[in-house]
Amino acid sequence: MPTAATTEPAKPVKVSKHADGRFGYVPVQTRSARFKSTNVADFETVTGREAVWKYLPVAKFTDLLAGDLDGSPYEIESTDSTDVSVEWVERSDGRIGLAGAPEERASANAWTGFEKALAITVNGEEAKEITITRAALGYAPRAAHTIIEARPFSQATVILQNSGEARLTENVEIILGESANLTVVTVQEWDDEAVHLSNHFASVGRDARLKHVVVSLGGRIVRVSPSIRLAGSGSDTDLLGLYFADAGQHLEQQVYVNHDAPQSRSRVNYKGALQGKAAHTVWIGDVLIGSKGTGTDSYEQNRNLVLSEGTRADSVPNLEIETGDIVGAGHASATGRFDDEQLFYLQSRGISEEEARRLVVRGFLTEIVQKIGSPELEARLLLAIEAELVITDGK
Length: 395
Fold this sequence. Notes:
6 helices, nine-stranded mixed beta sheet, mainly beta
């Protein structure tokens, strides 16, 4: 079992102003060296110029970055599943802090402010599926904390379904024991004005496998940041993401994979589409192959499809390697509009331009949906994507 996360990595070192050219601080050069703390008071006020915040309109959610939050338990709905328990636990629960610790102020504010954690515990070697639904949390600023523990050799799919009103900052801890096989799917279908900042921390044990899927379709500002530590030899993770931004939406994903054990494997594949004025998506992918990560096999990619004028897609892949003894590592990123040849081919077969566009986008995003492994959820998401494919002419 992993030990609780420490909170003492070094802050940037103070030096004379001329040493770094402007601010008088040496920036953190390694992803794993970022400062961490579960106490919001340990973080400075957010200005929006920080690397972790620079893409977000921080002025629109200052209440989630500082001040009091409602951290009380909220109403949930849960499907029944054998060998899966769902309960509220106290802050003293020994699993809290095992998977990671906040690296930024909103996450730390949620950690400081929650009263009880929602604990989902998976037992049993038979595959099973459970859906946890949250709806209508309201627009008062709120904090939340969730623990998902997959006991050794267990198998399950856990779906976190989000909809309705929300103004939420939260942390989700995911703990996989030896040889566990867990799929976690988080679906964001919030109302148009919702704000959701979510940090997922995962620790993957020996020979365990985690599939983590982020689907963001609704909400005004949504950021889901999975941070995965491959902590045991032979650990494995697939990180999948699908997002569709309409006019005025900001959908962001900051992904981090830390290969901290030998013979580990990771694959990251995020795809997004954008349409409408001021639709903005951000994907940042950090992969660290540490000195203990011998035999690592890693690859990450991000693809964005631009459907109209006035959109913006930021895509930043990063790769750090601290050992030369690896199987392979790489990354890729691409952002572009429709392929005119594809549209021409479809139209030459008698398909209208509008329907041809729908087919291209559907095919582009369906690859991610089909890898989730839950037929019922996959069918529902395909319908949701279809509903998004309304031609807005940039409005």
